[in-house]
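Chapter review. Work through the record for ATP-binding protein before attempting the end-of-chapter questions.
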Amino acid sequence: MITATNLSKVYNGTTVLNIEHLDIPKGQNFGLVGNNGAGKTTFFSLLLDLIQPTTGNIFNKEITVSQSEDWKPFTSAFIDESFLIGYLTPEEYFYFVGELRNRNKADIDSFLEQFTDLFNGEILGRNKYLRDLSKGNQKKVGIVAALIGEPEVVILDEPFANLDPTTQIRLKKLLKELSKTVGTTVLISSHDLIHVTEVCERIVVLDKGLIVRDIETSEATLKELEDYFSREIAEA
Ligand SMILES: Nc1ncnc2c1ncn2[C@@H]1O[C@H](COP(=O)(O)OP(=O)(O)OP(=O)(O)O)[C@@H](O)[C@H]1O
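Structure tokens for ATP-binding protein:
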């Protein structure tokens, strides 16, 4: 579904991402982990054509994302709050995204019913602008909006950050079901090794822009990741 070849991004002479080859098959629940500055957001930004690669290409369903917009109808993402529109209420924002995805208000209203528990009475019908919601509630809106219109590819940067424990548990279930029952290709990044190993069937570790681990998730994965990330502490 998604392929990166010879993909690199260089800022001021520093290579922040360098991926020789990466294939993410359709329907995979794919997790990206790595310390601060490892290149996770850079990879997602390239995939969404928010930045241009220095070298190489990234293909979404064989479409070169930097050269064609044909991937947009089946791809959605929530990277950060800049994806939201602060002066809209959540309802207005969901309807707006719905229009982009050819869904009318009635479609959106019925789509939103499944998120009543997740919203916990704090999102809909409150007449609050998105800019006035808490960080966690903004994130809920962004993630749910990214699911409007049954996208084939969903990209979420740090989806668990700022969410309360109950919402994290609900979100994990939701993300697992997305790939299992609907066949959505789900890409997430996370600093939470427990969440990412629970949700993702494959985990790639980035270190200074390089892929240093590519793991099919198993019972041993959490320990393997914890060992990997504690190695520097152990060496010191
Ligand atoms: N516009 C830019 N100009 C210069 N350097 C940049 C720019 N954008 C990102 N970088 C650098 O690229 C590197 C990778 O950043 P990126 O945001 O992809 O990391 P990340 O893995 O998402 O980190 P975090 O876990 O902190 O979110 C960092 O060193 C960052 O400073």
